[in-house]
Amino acid sequence: MENSILDVKKLSVYVTVGDRKFPAVRNVSFSVLKGEIFGIVGESGCGKTLTALSVPELLSDGIFQSESSVLFDGVPVHNLPAREKRSIYGKDISVIFQEPMTALNPLVSIHKQVEESLRLHTNMSKMQRHERVKQCLLEVGIRNVEQVMEMYPHELSGGMRQRVMIASAVICRPKLLIADEPTTALDMTTQNQVLGLMRKINASYGTAILFISHDLKVVSSLCNRMAVMYAGSFVEQGSVRDVFTNPCHEYTKGLLNSIPSAEKKGTRLECIQGKVPSVTESKMACAFAPRCNKAEQQCYIQIPEKKVISQDHCAWCHFSCKGEL
């Protein structure tokens, strides 16, 4: 896509169980435009984190991706020599992980952890790095910076650790920031502060953000465009406004109908019957068909193709363009 910082085409990710491999992400394609915030939303286990971590090649042992096209700023980054990849990962592409307590090194001070990217990717002097770390921690809302820089992760609250993770990720002013559910397990006040920080980073640095979440409300308040993911595949994609005002896939509708609101107070929330299939379960042609009350025989035998709803809105459903949904 023109003016995109990231283009992913036909990405599939497989999980190895014993001597067998199972598809966890199936033929996913998307683009993130320069300076935008693109969200991938879905239930736990749908493959959204695997999709995001495939970009900087951070998949765990036993999980591997098929050959796919991943272009970063027009460059096929996965095909680059290891040395060139290292100059991009951590500098131009950075990641905020879901759980900072496991991502941060418990034996290394906050100063050294935030400083690491500067040591690896810049020619700054020790004094310059110190000042840059101090300034970056201030920018993410940490007070008593000199004191915090000498502390260790276990001495900080969950919200503070997440801010340190964000500082580590943005200290080199990356072009693309991958945020893997950065507000999970945070209280509402801290969550709102972190989301505000995401907006500030996007606006101040022009950093594009690939934002992973299971929370539709968060995605609606933060992102420009979004994709809805189910059982390893995208089922709908478009601008946040289009998806929320004109959902065209039954799964998207089910998610939206399950969101609590003042208007629904005192009434039973709708829920999607059934459960998400595990990665080892065989999938129907349309993975959502067993849970869809409008599924027909075609849904069980034929993989739905991409249907264009409007200029930047599409869905993978046999009936989304026919008015049945």
Portion in helices:
25-40%
- Please write the string of helix (H) and strand (E) elements: EEEHEEEHEHHHHHEHEHEEHHHEE
The profile of the biggest β sheet is: 8 strands, mixed
Give the CA-based shape: globular
Task: Kindly report the oligomeric state of this protein.
Answer: single chain
Number of strands: 13
Low-pLDDT stretches: none
**Strand fraction:** 15-25%
Annotation field: number of helices:
12
**Category by helix and strand content:** alpha/beta
| End-to-end separation | 29 Å
Q: Could you walk me through the main structural features you see in this protein, from its secondary elements to its overall organization?
A:
This protein has 325 residues and is an alpha/beta fold. The strands form 2 sheets. The chain has an 8-stranded mixed sheet with strand order 7-8-9-3-10-11-13-12, with helices on both faces. The chain contains 12 helices and 13 strands. The longest helix has 18 residues, at 188-205.
